[in-house]
Amino acid sequence: MKSIRGIISLILVSGAIYAQAALPPSAVNLKDLNTMVQFITEHPHVAQTLKQIDLRSLTIFFDHDCEAYFERRSPSLLTRDMPGPQLGIRFKRSNCPLVEGHSE
Q1: CA neighbor of 88 nearest in space, from 23, 43, 42
Q2: pTM score of the predicted model
Q3: Contact partners, residue 88, CB within 8 Å, separation at least 6
Q4: Dihedral (Cα; 36, 18, 79, 32), 10-degree rounding
Q5: What pLDDT digit, counting tens, does each position of 28-87 carry?
Q6: Under a CB-based contact definition with an 8 Å cutoff, are residues 39 and 104 in contact?
Q7: How far apart are CA 23 and CA 87, in angstroms?
Q8: 5 close to 13: Cβ distance less than 8 angstroms
Q9: pLDDT at residue 15 in the model
Q10: Closest residue by Cα to residue 56 from 80, 28, 37, 77
Q11: CA-CA-CA-CA torsion for 21, 36, 60, 26, nearest 10 degrees?
């Protein structure tokens, strides 16, 4: 009976640790939005022609049908199975030049 209680206690404690490690969706959204706004401030052409920021698709829409795509970083092999907050996002690619008058 003591071993069953010990196992149940261990399961409950490990579940509580995992639950506390994850950030709420609002915090993840704010981190993602800050990253995207930082990208916009670093690219004046994107800032001048900005149309929309979509947090669901992690996409910035700018100029005429231009899109800058972001992706969530992948965890390393060492941290893949460890609980914790989601990794941040990073710029992946754009379907248009990020600088006016240049082709990238």
Answers
A1: 23
A2: 0.69
A3: 31, 32, 35, 72, 73
A4: 0
A5: 899 999 999 999 999 999 999 999 999 999 999 999 999 999 999 887 666 666 666 678
A6: no
A7: 10
A8: no
A9: 56
A10: 28
A11: 30
Cα–Cα distance between 36 and 100 in angstroms, integer? 19
Encoding tokens for residue 71? 């992706």
Token pair of 58, please? 């992690």
Contact 35, 70 (CB under 8 A): yes
Residue carrying the six token digits 């990794």 = 87
List 52's β-bridge partners, or say none: 61
| Residue 70 near residue 92, CB atoms below 8 Å | yes
32, two tokens: 């993602």
Name 17's Cβ contacts closer than 8 Å, sequence gap at least 6: 83
